[in-house]
Amino acid sequence: MTIAQALSAASAQHLTPGFVAAASHNGKSLFSQAFGRLAPGTPTPMTEDSIFWLASMTKAVTATAAMQLVEAGKLDLDAPLGNLLPELGRAQVFDGFAADGSVKLRAPKRPITLRHLLTHTSGHVYDMWNADFAKAAKVLGIPSLGTSLNAALNTPLMFDPGTNWEYGIGIDWAGKAVEAASGKALDAYVEDHIAAPLGMVDTSFTPRASWATRHAGMTARAADGSIATIDFATAEDPEFHGGGGGLHGTAHDYLRFLQMVLNGGTLNGAHILKPETVRVMQANHLGDVALRTLTSAAPHLSNDLDLAQGAPAHWGLSWQINPAPGADGRSAGSLAWAGLANCYYWADPATNVAGVLLMQMLPFADAQAMALFGAFERAVYAAVNA
């Protein structure tokens, strides 16, 4: 069975909206195809150059920008960031609720570093997976991150830096560090130092007018399993570009980024990172701190989050790493993560295989979308090993 046949069969079995899948092996395209429609109920087909909101797939790109500045001596993984980002230096730790419902705060036991931000050990969280934070944010009047307001980043820490792991907004702060250290806005920095050199011609923090007929519509799965288009607009002129989730792009572009990573930091003559820096990013940075399942506090946005599906998992800078071979074919030491609208990727350094699956559907970690991703991965390795 070919990859296309496997995806056609899986998409028929696992009801999903239109999607694009792309994979490479040894730096060369192995597969690229679009399936379904740009949005339910429309005649416009999904195409290989359809544009998707990449959401948290942005994080690896922002981490790459930050590590470029570490290489240049403008950022340090383990130096306190409070001098560079005073607002971050003033962050307080959540210490529970008082009897009157007010939020108790205290000083953190150690300052936040770039390593904390890139490994999700800074104490920052997302309200969709932390009910205490969601309640505290409401009491404190902190706006939603989706508003793209700077005030949305000035949140309490839910634990002391370096003591726990919880997925959160830390890499949005890493994007702020990139701006402060480089003197450039994040969108301009990423364009000049990553996207343009890699030929990622359809990747940007700001949706382009020319994309209007190519941007996939956002959808949602209802309780009965059906899928319908929903309104889900991103800010056109945000106060900040979200290093944790602001990019829009194509499967082809993101595959080029992953090929650069697998190639030790270069692609077709473009030098993005040093090989030793890539090795650092691919290493486990959590030590004894363990990843754990995050329970959804906003079921309309996400299901419970465990992309390792019960298997052990490590964290690098900034992606999940599986220490043992994966159930669907990837090797031990492979890198993977995802984006809120059920966008997924993996990169396997041992076999030089990478894959990207993009759709636009909420809630995140949809069981049928993840089953489709698993079928895609298995088909890719079957083709590689044939």
Automatic annotation (TrEMBL):
Domain Beta-lactamase-related: from-to ranges: 4-368
Domain of life of the source: Bacteria
Keyword Hydrolase: yes
Annotated GO MF terms: hydrolase activity
A Pfam family reported for this protein in Swiss-Prot or TrEMBL: Beta-lactamase
Keywords of the record: Hydrolase
Protein name according to UniProt: Class A beta-lactamase-related serine hydrolase
The organism's taxonomic lineage, starting at the top: Bacteria, Pseudomonadati, Pseudomonadota, Alphaproteobacteria, Sphingomonadales
